[in-house]
Design goal:
It contains 5 helices and no strands. By secondary structure, it is mostly helical. The protein has 2 domains: 69 residues; 32 residues, no CATH class. The radius of gyration is 19 Å and the shape is elongated. It starts with a helix and ends in a 6-residue tail after the last helix. The model has no long low-confidence stretch (mean pLDDT 83).
Length: 113
């Protein structure tokens, strides 16, 4: 399963677990990074210690997954710059370096160019 899909699932899991205790926050990657540490440090929200530990572990895992996604994106963009075919795809309206490079990665064109 791709890192980006796993990251979405971990974010949903964090939101769901905290939601069980009535702790909600806006959707979005940055909201988790900003809100979760505050929720874990807030002693008045009565989260059980084991849940705090689980959420902390999930949050650290999420950061690792997000870092992997960024690294993959950098690899795709770097490869895109050296691929004539990928640069041609980028000229299509709505397709940028990531979409063009990823399309060729998925289709196996990476090794052919």
């Amino acid at each position: 399963m791709p890192s980006s899909r796993r990251a979405r699932r971990v974010r949903a899991q964090i939101r769901g677990l905290l939601g069980e205790f009535g702790l909600v926050f806006p959707k979005g990657i940055w909201n988790i990074a900003q809100c979760v540490p505050e929720l874990l440090e807030n002693a008045s929200n009565e989260l059980p210690l084991v849940l705090r530990q689980l959420i902390d572990r999930l949050t650290r895992h999420l950061k690792e997954l997000d870092q992997q996604v960024r690294e993959f994106e950098l690899e795709i963009v770097a490869w895109h710059r050296g691929s004539e075919l990928s640069r041609k795809l980028e000229k299509i309206s709505g397709i940028g370096p990531l979409a063009a490079g990823a399309e060729l990665f998925v289709d196996g064109g990476m090794g052919q160019v």
